[in-house]
Amino acid sequence: MARRRYVARGVPGGYRVWDNRGRRWWGDLYELCPDELVEALNGGADPAKLMALMKRYRALKR
After folding, report:
1. What is the pLDDT of residues 8-62, one digit of tens each?
2. CA–CA–CA angle 47, 52, 46 (5° rounding)
3. Residue 32: helix, strand or coil by DSSP?
4. SS3 content of the chain, % helix, strand, coil (to 5)
5. Residue 47, CB half-sphere, CA atoms under 13 Å: how many?
């Protein structure tokens, strides 16, 4: 099984998305685990779907 490029990691205050290839954090801090967002990032990167998921998870922070 191939190693995933993006993974969700728990940090104080919620979750962040870690980029294994770039070795840096990607995106914002999320209170809920962004499972669908991580799956979309690791699959075919459809920009419209990614933006919709990012907006949804950002709205859950409020």
Report:
1. 999 999 999 999 999 999 989 999 899 999 999 998 778 999 999 989 988 886 5
2. 20
3. coil
4. 35, 30, 30
5. 0
Phi, psi values for residue 14, rounded to 5° = 155, -135
Q: What pLDDT, on a 0 to 100 scale, did the predictor assign at position 1?
A: 55
Could you tell me if 30 and 16 are in contact, meaning their C-beta atoms sit under 8 angstroms apart? yes
**Cross-strand bridge partners of residue 18:** 7, 25
Contacts 24+ apart (CB under 8 A), 35-43: 35/8, 38/4, 38/6, 38/7, 38/8, 41/5, 41/6, 41/17, 42/4, 42/5, 42/6
Q: What is the pTM of this model?
A: 0.82
